[in-house]
Write a structure and sequence with these properties.
This protein has two helices and two strands. By secondary structure, the protein is mainly α.
């Protein structure tokens, strides 16, 4: 994972790719339309609740794992600067 808040203005791009056994998958680009993203999220939530499977790949466990990655990245940055 690469994360930065200090990129130059010329680096005005963001993208997310996931690699796995079946190849590479790119996240759809941002559309600046949060309403559509909310509709998708709510539809998935309702569908999972109806199916009896309330879990989702991007649930709180995913958030925990992202937090751990970010904390480790910060720890490594701090270790280099001391």
């Amino acid at each position: 994972m690469t994360v930065t808040l200090g990129a130059a203005e010329a680096a005005e791009y963001s993208g997310i790719w996931l690699w796995g056994e079946s190849g590479r998958s790119a996240a759809p680009p941002e559309t600046n339309q949060p309403t559509q993203a909310l509709r998708v999220a709510l539809a998935e939530l309702a569908g999972n609740a109806r199916s009896g499977h309330p879990g989702h790949p991007c649930d709180v466990r995913f958030g925990r794992d992202v937090g751990r990655v970010l904390a480790e990245a910060q720890r490594q940055i701090d270790a280099r600067t001391t």
